[in-house]
Specification:
The protein has two domains: 31 residues; 131 residues, Calycin beta-barrel core domain (Lipocalin), CATH 2.40.128. The chain is 17% helix and 49% strand. It contains one helix and eleven strands. An eleven-stranded antiparallel beta sheet has the order 5-7-8-9-10-11-1-2-3-4-6, with no helix packed on it. A hairpin with a 5-residue loop joins strand 10 and strand 11.
Length: 164
């Protein structure tokens, strides 16, 4: 086999590997059970301290090797809440957009296929940590939050969301 033929075969093999690897990443992202739109189920959620918000919706979608998250809702006092971020699972700080009162950055860590940990900071100080997981049937997203909010209150919330 000539050098030119071997080089051509090698290039073809590398191109094939890249296509398979790229499609595997795309498949893994598309199959992430957290992707979708989730509506807050107030009856199943618990807030300490309260009060609970009036409503909430979270949308999680693919964004490169990471995700894009958009949160919309209405706080207990009737104030609209809208914030979000787009970033990777590399532990680096991601700047939040919108009006999140407890964080200006978030860091993402994948725990398992169904679970993610988000660590929030405000002005460089850690505030809240969220354990985000999806039920085995893919119909329920649970966010367990612990830490201290921007008001200095100890937080221990469990938010339950239903897939839309």
């Amino acid at each position: 086999m000539s050098v030119r033929m071997r080089r051509g075969c090698l290039q073809g093999l590398l191109a094939g590997i890249l296509v398979v690897a790229g499609s595997s990443v795309a498949w893994a992202q598309a199959s992430d059970p957290q992707y979708g739109t989730w509506k807050l189920n107030l009856a199943k959620s618990k807030y300490s301290p309260g009060p609970a918000p009036k409503e909430g919706t979270v949308t999680i979608e693919a964004a490169g090797p990471g995700r894009k998250v958009t949160v919309n809702g209405v706080a207990a006092d009737g104030t609209k809440v809208t914030w979000g971020y787009s970033g990777n699972f590399d532990g680096k700080e991601i700047r939040l957009t919108g009006n999140n009162p407890d964080a200006d950055v978030v860091m993402l860590k994948r725990i398992s296929a169904n679970a993610v940990r988000t660590t929030n900071k405000m002005a460089g100080k850690r505030t809240l940590v969220n354990g985000v997981s999806v039920s085995a049937d893919g119909k329920t997203l649970t966010v367990a939050t612990t830490g201290v909010n921007a008001k200095g209150q100890t937080v221990k919330n469990t938010q339950v969301f239903d897939k839309q």
